[in-house]
């Protein structure tokens, strides 16, 4: 499969997915479409798209590294029971970090924040 066509395919998959996907998830979706690139090829392409800011990393506790379409800065609420994932937008987040890091001699470049717990349905 040509590289550009592969990129298109991956863009389509991420546009259609409401939740972050791991390399294993993508491998499964591509198999259903009768496409069989190997894991390394997928991983390389995803990293390339992440560097180009098409995608962003998501760090799962249980499933490892995931990817999702880049959009408004947000975090995640992840259910430990059913693995439902909800976006979390923190109001005045920059102010919060300014307060946290105010006295530290450290220049933050990126951060990841995923909160694990139980969704409404699972906590009943
Ligand atoms: Zn943030
Ligand atoms: Zn749940």
UniProtKB/TrEMBL annotation:
SUPFAM superfamilies listed in its UniProt record = Winged helix' DNA-binding domain (SSF46785)
Detail which positions bind Zn(2+). 79, 82, 119, 122
UniProt KW keywords: DNA-binding, Iron, Metal-binding, Repressor, Transcription, Transcription regulation, Zinc
What cofactor does its activity depend on?
Answer: Mn(2+); Fe(2+); Zn(2+)
Indicate yes or no for the key word Cytoplasm.
no
The molecular function terms of the Gene Ontology recorded here are:
DNA-binding transcription factor activity; transcription cis-regulatory region binding; zinc ion binding
Q: What does the UniProt cofactor note say?
A: Binds 1 Mn(2+) or Fe(2+) ion per subunit.
Record-annotated residues binding Fe cation? 73, 111
- One Pfam family hit: FUR
Look up the record and give one Gene Ontology term from the biological process aspect.
regulation of secondary metabolite biosynthetic process
Q: Which family does it belong to?
A: Belongs to the Fur family.
By what name is this protein known? Answer: Transcriptional repressor
């Amino acid at each position: 499969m040509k590289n550009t066509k592969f990129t298109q395919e991956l863009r389509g998959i991420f546009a259609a997915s409401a939740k972050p996907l791991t390399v294993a998830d993508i491998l499964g979706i591509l198999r259903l479409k009768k496409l069989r690139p190997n894991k390394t090829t997928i991983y390389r392409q995803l990293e390339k798209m992440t560097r180009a800011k098409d995608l962003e990393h998501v760090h799962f506790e249980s499933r490892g590294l995931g990817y999702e379409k880049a959009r408004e800065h947000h975090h995640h609420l992840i259910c430990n029971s059913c693995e439902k994932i909800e976006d979390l937008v923190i109001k005045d987040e920059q102010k919060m970090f300014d307060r946290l890091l105010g006295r530290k001699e450290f220049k933050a470049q990126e951060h990841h924040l995923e909160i694990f717990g139980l969704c409404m349905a699972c906590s009943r």
